[in-house]
Structures are given as C-alpha cells and as structure tokens.
Amino acid sequence: MTDTNPTSDPASGPSLENLLHETRSFPPSEEFAAQANAKAGLYERASAAGEEFWAEQARELVTWQTPFTETLDWSGAPVARWFGDGTLNAAYNAVDRHVEAGHGDRVAIHFEGEPGDTRTVTYADLQQEVSRAANALTTLGVRTGDRVVIYLPMLVESVVAMLACARIGAPHSVVFGGFSADALRSRIADAEATLVVTADGGYRRGAPSALKPAVDEALAPKEGAPETSVQKVLVVRRTEQEVDWVEGRDVWWHEALAAADPVHEPVAVEAEHPLFILYTSGTTGKPKGILHTTGGYLTQTAYTHKYVFDLKPETDVYWCTADVGWVTGHSYVVYGPLVNGATQVLYEGTPDTPHRGRWWELIQKYKVSILYTAPTAIRTCMKWGDDIPGEFDLSSLRVLGSVGEPINPEAWMWYRRVIGGDRAPVVDTWWQTETGAIMISPLPGVTAAKPGSAQVPLPGIAATVVDDEAKPVPDGGGGYLVLSEPWPSMLRGIWGDLERYKDTYWSRFEGLYFAGDGAKKDDDGDIWLLGRVDDVMNVSGHRLSTTEIESALVSNPIVAEAAVVGANDETTGQAVVAFVILRGEHANRASTPEGAAEVQKELRDHVGKEIGPIAKPKKILVVPELPKTRSGKIMRRLLRDVAEDRTVGDATTLADSSVMDLITAGLAVPSAASED
Ligand code: WT7
C-alpha cells in the first residue's frame, strides 16, 4: 500500500521522481545518424522559417492540383485555415501519384488475415480498387460532401473504403468495430451519414465474429431515436456468415465493385475540405466528432511519418498495429504511410492468435523494419516472456515506435532490448485524435533517447508545460501540456458544435490549446507526459470517458447512481473501475457473493451493449454511498484511492466525511469486489 503518486490527479504510474532523474540515455549510433532522414538542422530550419517551414513541407511532401499561395490564416482562431487557396485530392496523393511516378509495382499492403490468408496489394492494384470503389459509391448516390460511416474489421477494404471516400470528397467517419450498435447509431446520427460500409464479420481470436447485425440494429427504427439518414449499406464479404438482408438498402461490396469502372478521376477539393470525422470520448457523455481537413492533415501526417520513423519507401517494410477505427490507424496506417509511398503490413487479428508469437512471426516473415505499437501491447508481450520473441528473427527491425499512453521505462527498455536487439531506436510519440499527427517525439538519428519520455516537440511544433496561471514552468516543474501555435493537422472543430470546440480546448488558457494532459519538464527540459487531468481515461491506449460509462450504468434500471474512475493497471495502463449504488430492493441482491457476481455481470454486459466491449468495467463495486463535495461533485480522487488499494487520502472536503468509512467497510466484505 504505497502511494507513489506525487500528483494525485494524473495517472502517473510508478515513481515519478525516479523517472525525472532518468540517467540512461541512448544516443543514435553513427551509422543510423548518417543515413537518417532527420538531421539536427531540421529544428533550426523550423524555428528560423516559422510558418514558411510548413509551406516547404506541404510543397515537398504533397502534390497539389492548384498550388497554394497562402500558408496560414489564423484570423478565424481557433479555427485555422492552412494552405487555404490550394486544391488537392487525398487519394491521388496516397495512390495515383506513386503509380504515375513508376512505382505501380511496389507493394502498398501485405495483408495477413487472422486465419492466415494473405493478399498482396501493389499501388497499381490499390489505384484500381479505390477507383472502382469511388465509382461504386457515386453510383450508390454518394456526393462530394456527404458523410460515409465505415464500420469494418482490419481489412484491405477498410483502407480502400476510406480512400474511395477521400477520392470523391465525401468525409468518412470510421467507427471502431468494437463499438456497439448503440454507439454506432449515435455516431451515424450525429454525422448524418447517408451510407455505411460494413462487413458480414471478421476473424477474432480464431473464430468468425459477426459485424453486420450491429449495423442492422443501429439502423432499425427505435423509439425516441431520430430516423436515420442512411440510404445504402455496402457489405464486404469476409467470413461468409449468414446475414440478414434489407432489399433496396444492402449491396454487396464485391458486386458493386465488379460492376464499377476501374478508372476514376479524383475530385480536387479545397485544402480545407473535410477529410474525415472521427469520434472520440470527451469529458461529457456525448462523444465528440473531431473534424480533420485535407491539406494540412496530409502534410503533417506525411512529414511526421517520414521523419519520426525515418521512412525509406524503397526499402522499408512498415507496420503499425493500430486499428483503422482509431486515429493512429487513420494517420499511420492510411494517410501518412500511403502518401509517403510506403510498403506496409496490415494484420487483421490479435497478437496471441493462434499463438503468442504471431506478431514476431509476421515481422520475421515480412522483414518488417519499422514497428509502431502501443505500450499496453508491449507490456503484455513482456509478461509472456522473452523466449517467445526470442524464437523469431527480428533483425530486420530498425525503428520502434510507441503511442497511446505513457510508456513506463521498464517496458521501454524491454522493447529496445528484446524487440529492437539493443540496436533499434525507440520513439515515444505523443499526440491525440485532435492533433491529427505526432507532436512530441524524439527524432531517431538526432535525439539521445530517454526511456519513458516523449522528450521534445517536433520541429515546427510549439508545445510547452504551463502552471495554473498559464505561465511556462521552469525545468524540473510540472503542470499542463499546451500547444501555443497552430499546426497544420490540428482539428478544425467538433462536428456541428463550434462552441464545444472553443470551450473544450481554448477556454482554460487564453490563446493556448489545452490538451487535457498533465506533464512535467525534467532538468534537461525534456517533457514527460503524466496522463489526463480531466475525466478521460486511457485503457490500453484507448480513450474512454468516465461520464459516458457512468451514463451507460445509470441507464440500467437497477442502478441509482454510478461513479467511474481509471485505476492504474499494470498491463492496460488504466482500468475502468465503477462504483455503483443500486436501487431499492436491488441493493439486497448484492449482499451475497453469488448475487454480487450476478449484478456485476449484468452491469458489465449492459455497458458492453451501450458502448462496446472495450468500455466494460474491470471491476464493479457496489457501495451504499458515493463521496461528494458540498457542491455535489463526486470526489473521484478518493475512489481512485480505493480502486488502487491505497489508504484513502484527505476527505475533509466531503459533505459527509463518514462516507469513505462506509465505502471501505462495505468493501471489506470480499464478495463485492470480485473480478472477472
Ligand atoms: C491521449 C490521446 C495519439 C493516438 C492514440 C491516442 C495519451 C497518447 C501518448 C504518449 C503519453 C499519450 C494522452 C493523450 N497519449 N500518446 N506517447 N505518452 N500519453 O489518441 O485516443 O486521442 O488519446 O492519449 O493522454 O491526450 P487519443
């Protein structure tokens, strides 16, 4: 029962003080530095050139239909316009121009299905398939500006569908396949999508898992829910499961594409044309539709992908393990790598199917040279032991990336030593759905890396740590991470809610973008991310809102009140722990071990249905009361103490200071704290 958490709010993990005195340093090898894309001069150029630096990147990395003459227009702050008078097409940049440059035979995607089926897709293949899909979407009535929801497993078709939308200028909104029908319904409604792309199912842990039923349910009339705007559902056949079919609405993907012309003229759109909307959890119950536009987003994803991963498109084999349902999949599976003409691996399944060496086997098989994954996966593999990766030849790896949550130094060291053979540089990359692209990261070949720290803002990025009064903290100090200059891939708002955009990100500190993360600067001025300071949790690198899960819980008739906290978890970073007060007679149900287990299962399933399996609480504790301040605010800090098995901290501001005794006394009955 040790409290090693000096900042009570952020989920800072083990011993921050030790972290901040990290003495291990891994400077780049001479060989790596000599061949690296990034040289130290990039920082100098960026600070000397100001916004012109981004204009240079935009001209070098992206092909424009109409060249831009304006770089940044910040007069409508906090909504930026980058490269405003330029026009371009994202799919053309990701596909066609590589074919035109003579690289049509280059592999764009090595697809590996979970059952072991494979497919090799060259840039020329991709051009044909994306063109067919764009024509098919057009035939099905999708016009430039219409929104298309994509709800698919990790398939080649997922990438094709996204690019087909981009090709006709129809913003896509990808919804992660692990979200429930209800979550899908609310996203479809908010985006007012007219078409949904889905699949019969996908392979998950060795078995086909259905997907289309969730779409059918999301589109079915529901009392109290608005009528859906969806006209057509395009269905990819993956598992050949039986599916219900709505005549006139449902169309097979393979039939629509076979009937479509393989030639399609990409639609040139303005740089600020919406490219996609991606929903993410905020501090309230309603997910936010983060809006990204075309020119700036492509520029910065390509720029970061080139320099942070040191990509050499002719020789590297790149693999980002993220699902396209998250922003990492958007920026570093689809747009960044393809705009850069990379060859990449796309894997449908989980790391432990059919065995725990599957990832390493894939790295050996495809000679992957750049790997980008999340700390939670690294920690899981670390737990499984060194022997498993030891069985495979990982010598092709030359850059290792980490993203999604703070990476603890132990996991960082293991990643470098066991996976990277003590040779490949590790880059810990900080960014968000909102930032669109990596913002803080070491540059391989330049930065001497420090285990556990994202360290320095990339060239062109102004990130700093400020105190409550918005004053930058000195080295050694802690506070909040802010971004003080606009950047090309920044969000352009929250879909349909400009006020919420201003309020969420720009109201805390005048003129500064508030990221929601706590951070410290060590004595060298390097940045250490400490976790969220708001009601957002980070479970396995996925963002979940405490409020959203609380709303899901109280929507169950047996629950009177609920409070959710993110407790530190060795593997997943944070774990969802819920405290619930049951209604009237139901309270008695939890008084026996069996009854409590039943209630917990019922509520976990309920959250799974309302939001999705990823949001299911790891623990549900039935309590008689919740700790509240006199103004009625739940003191999550105290609940976190309970959830993390610590002595409960200062409870003097509670309206009723005996509540915590009541809660901890109740939990002493082992039945109520069962885990599954
Ligand atoms: C939040 C954003 C960026 C793609 C995946 C998550 C946390 C992200 C790091 C990192 C410490 C990190 C932050 C951030 N986060 N990367 N390298 N070190 N924390 O995107 O779902 O928008 O979540 O993830 O708390 O605010 P997201």
From TrEMBL:
Names of required cofactors: Mg(2+)
Protein name in the entry: Acetyl-coenzyme A synthetase
Catalysed reaction equations from the record: acetate + ATP + CoA = acetyl-CoA + AMP + diphosphate
Positions that bind Mg(2+): V554, V559
Entry keyword Heme: no
PROSITE patterns in alphabetical order: AMP_BINDING
Post-translational modification (record): Acetylated. Deacetylation by the SIR2-homolog deacetylase activates the enzyme.
Annotated AMP-binding enzyme C-terminal domain residues: 548-633
Domain AMP-dependent synthetase/ligase span(s) in chain numbering: 101-495
Recorded name of the encoding gene: acs
The keyword RNA-binding is assigned to this record: no
Lineage: Bacteria, Bacillati, Actinomycetota, Actinomycetes, Micrococcales
Domain Acetyl-coenzyme A synthetase N-terminal: 42-94
Species annotation: Promicromonospora umidemergens
Keywords noted in UniProt: Acetylation, ATP-binding, Ligase, Magnesium, Metal-binding, Nucleotide-binding
Example of a GO MF term: ligase activity
Gene3D superfamilies, alphabetized: 3.30.300.30, N-terminal domain of ligase-like (3.40.50.12780)
